[in-house]
Design goal:
With 463 residues, this protein is mainly beta. The protein has 2 helices and 33 strands. A 7-stranded mixed sheet has the order 1-19-18-21-16-13-14, with no helix packed on it. Strands 2-15-23-22-17-20 form a 6-stranded mixed sheet, with no helix packed on it. A hairpin with a 3-residue loop joins β4 and β5. The protein is globular and about 60 Å long. The N and C termini lie far apart (48 Å).
Length: 463
């Protein structure tokens, strides 16, 4: 296996410290064994009759985070927290029924999915209490790790914080990936990172924070588990990392062995990249391979210490390490660009906004011509932000005027932007038009999103 070696994603991004001054993370002592077996969300494979059908219901539940006292949560399909992992296949027709069993409105957004606007699950697709909403679409993208979560105006952060989120795995026929670890829950592990805070009696304590970096919480949960371990084969193990946190940025590393990134938000990288650290903002996904053939391996975070302990079992069959080439990616060339836009993320009024405006569901902020390729420059006046675009995947053209490092050479839908980190991206808008319901672009620090840092765009036919 030939790797592109990079010291760290910090080569392109300086960690200025992402923990609020008054928050002290509960750091795990690496000398102590991990305390709790990692909860693995069940894999929900579709009912097949020519269409891949899924049924989801979002309702009240409870989950014991380790205190012995069940905390009130919300979840999908009567789980104690989170939702099942959905398995999609590229090229298949999908139908997903989502029933709202809460006493408040919600939506179901398929984050990272290239779907028609009416199926995207943004704030215009409200599901009232007791109602069922159906999304049906063709899966038109390659293998990737996506996720789903509510996208209600003003309550996205609170609903996700209380447990409303789940992973999506898209599979395809890429022969280069055929030998990679792919047995779900065995050597292909979902790792949903969410920081939380608890009251003295063990209940979840939610706040929305108007600060630059949003609400930072002192306790780390992985798939709803505090200080987790899981048993894996003694060899290559695939971790599907998802930052499902309200606002926190993670700086991840591995304590005993290499960390090889094979995929970003939108799917496989051209080639595997060996890293010392990986930076993940809210909404980001990354797939990495770690090697447990020489003993236990711990995934670490700069603030929390150990995130997850992997305990190898030599009796389990092992997969292969990544091949030298993973996917062919058609690079967007400057000559392909049809239009340029600039997005400035900053404080607006008592909240946050983009280009001086806070979110207004009655206003279309940008109109994109169907089939065009656009270049967007994203800058920040104040705060830490992650810029997320619905409907499309984009390529990062530059970070502070320099080409992106190899670990950012693939497709993305969410990117970290700060006062010291200007990012230029390019995207092709050739999937769907949206004449009736707009798509969103917004900060994925959910506090900022709920406080106005979101805009709307339509993709339309015509000159």
């Amino acid at each position: 296996m030939t790797l592109t070696a990079c010291g760290s994603t910090e080569d392109a991004f300086e960690n200025d410290g992402f923990v609020a001054d008054d928050v002290v993370p509960a750091e795990v002592d690496l000398a102590d064994p991990a305390a709790n077996e990692l909860m693995i969300p069940p894999l929900l494979e579709p009912a097949q009759d020519g269409v891949a059908r899924f049924d989801l219901s979002l309702g009240e539940s409870s989950h014991d985070f380790g205190s012995g006292v069940p905390a009130e949560t919300i979840s999908y399909n009567n789980q104690s927290i989170l939702g099942p992992t959905l398995l999609w296949r590229s090229g298949s027709d999908v139908e997903i029924s989502v029933t709202n069993d809460l006493d408040e409105g919600t939506t179901a957004h398929w984050h990272g999915a290239d779907v028609p606007a009416e199926d995207d699950g943004g704030p215009h697709s409200r599901i009232g209490p007791g109602q069922t909403w159906v999304a049906d679409f063709e899966v038109i993208q390659s293998a990737a790790t996506l996720w789903y979560h509510p996208h209600m105006m003003g309550t996205s952060a609170e609903q996700v914080f209380h447990g409303a989120a789940g992973m999506i795995i898209v599979e395809d026929d890429n022969p280069a990936a055929a030998g990679l670890p792919s047995t779900y829950g065995v050597d292909d592990i979902p790792v949903i990172l969410q920081d939380r805070e608890f009251t003295a009696d063990g209940q979840l304590s939610f706040e929305i924070d108007n600060d630059d970096d949003g609400d930072q919480n002192p306790d780390l949960t992985v798939n709803g588990t505090i200080d987790p371990y899981t048993t894996v084969p003694a060899g290559p193990v695939r971790l599907r990392l998802l930052n499902g946190s309200q606002a926190r940025v993670y700086e991840l590393s591995v304590d005993n062995g290499m960390m090889v990134k094979i995929a970003s938000d939108g799917g496989y990288l051209p080639s595997p990249v060996e890293l010392e650290t990986i930076t993940m903002g809210p909404g980001d996904r990354a797939e990495i391979i770690v090697d447990t053939s020489t003993g236990p391996v711990a995934l670490l975070d700069d603030d929390f210490g150990r995130v997850l302990q992997l305990r190898p079992d030599i009796s389990l069959p092992t997969a292969e390490f990544p091949p030298n080439q993973l996917a062919g990616i058609e690079v967007i060339d400057a000559e392909e660009i049809d239009s340029d836009r600039t997005f400035v993320m900053d404080e607006v009024g008592n909240g946050w906004g983009i280009n001086g405006d806070q979110m207004d569901m009655g206003r279309i902020d940008e109109t994109v011509r169907f089939g065009d390729t656009e270049r967007w420059t994203i800058t920040v006046e104040d705060g830490i932000h992650t810029f997320h675009v619905h409907q499309t995947q984009f390529q990062i053209l530059s970070i502070n005027g320099e080409p992106p490092p190899p670990e950012h050479a693939g497709w993305e839908d969410t990117v970290l932007v700060t006062e010291d980190r200007e990012v230029v991206i390019a995207a092709r808008f050739d999937g769907y038009t949206s004449p009736d319901i707009p798509y969103m672009f917004h900060c994925h620090i959910l506090d900022h999103e709920d406080l106005g840092m979101m805009g709307q765009f339509q993709v339309l036919d015509g000159p």
